[in-house]
Amino acid sequence: MTESEIDLRRYWSAVAARWWLPVVGLLAGLALAYALSLGGADVWRGQALVYLGQPVTPSGAQVQSLSTNPATAREVATAARVQRGVERRAGMRRGALDGRVAVAAVEGNVSRLGQNPLVRVRVEGDSRRVARAATLLAREVVEKVSGYADAKISILETGVESLRNDLEEARGRSSGADVLLWRAELTDQLLDAEQTLALAQHVERARVVEEAVARKVTAQSRRNRLIVGAFLGLM
Fold first, then answer.
1. 32 near 229, Cβ under 8 Å?
2. Residue 127 and which of 52, 158, 178, 212 are 20 to 30 A apart at CA?
3. Cα 39 from Cα 225, distance rounded (Å)
4. DSSP for residue 121
5. Which residues contact 36 (CB under 8 A, 6 or more apart)?
6. 104 pairs with which residues across the strands?
7. Is 205:149 a contact under the CB 8 Å cutoff?
8. What value, to the nearest 5°, has the Cα angle with vertex 164 and ends 158 and 166?
9. Quick one: which of 62, 136, 68 has its CA closest to 105?
10. Are the C-beta atoms of residues 88 and 74 closer than 8 Å to each other?
């Protein structure tokens, strides 16, 4: 009989003589792990998807502005004044967002090609209110970076309304060569203005693409804690 076989038999005899010790250790480990799992707070996460917008000049050239820099979104969402306002509106305690907000560009953006990135505004906390907070922060970002686009949209809306009124007036006049030419010119101008307005509203202006939904992201599950506790108890 080898020395290892003798040691194994001796160990097994000791365990058999004191079988209740491993059982007690196992139960103690399970009880401790279960108690810790009950005391662990759930972590909730909410993520809102934001398109920062791509402003252009009347000739179509890209404009470098607040909306073309992803760092702007991060600075806005993490500003103390903005967070205090969002906490009040979301029904969260003061300071609940401190250190719980992150903003990052979505993978796939190619800066050298002039692609304006999508960004995710993420909030973590101990309640489902994180979803409301993330959406409100995303809206704050949109408002702050859309100044140029909003001014342009306002001007274009005024121009479109004026062209529509002129076209309505032209249609009410008797037919003639000059009137027909005027109608055609106004129709072309109105079509161009409406297309430019649509571009400003849907491409140049920032917007919240996807509002946040609260999801539980607790790092450790109760099952994993029980398994670890049982193993340590046996040891």
1. yes
2. 52
3. 12
4. E
5. 225, 229
6. 120
7. yes
8. 105
9. 68
10. no
Two tokens, residue 222:
């109760």
Rounded percentage of the chain residues whose pLDDT exceeds 70: 71
pLDDT score of 38: 52
User: 65 vs 42, 70, 71, 119, CA distance in Å?
Assistant: 40, 11, 11, 16
Residues 65, 148 contacting (CB under 8 angstroms):
yes
Which residue type, as a one-letter code, is found at position 10? R
Q: What is the pLDDT of residue 116?
A: 64
Query: Is residue 139 over pLDDT 60?
Result: yes
pLDDT of residue 76: 95
Tell me which residue has tokens 């917007």.
Answer: 207
**pLDDT-based confidence at residue 48 (cuts at 50, 70, 90):** very high
CA distance from start to end of the chain: 28
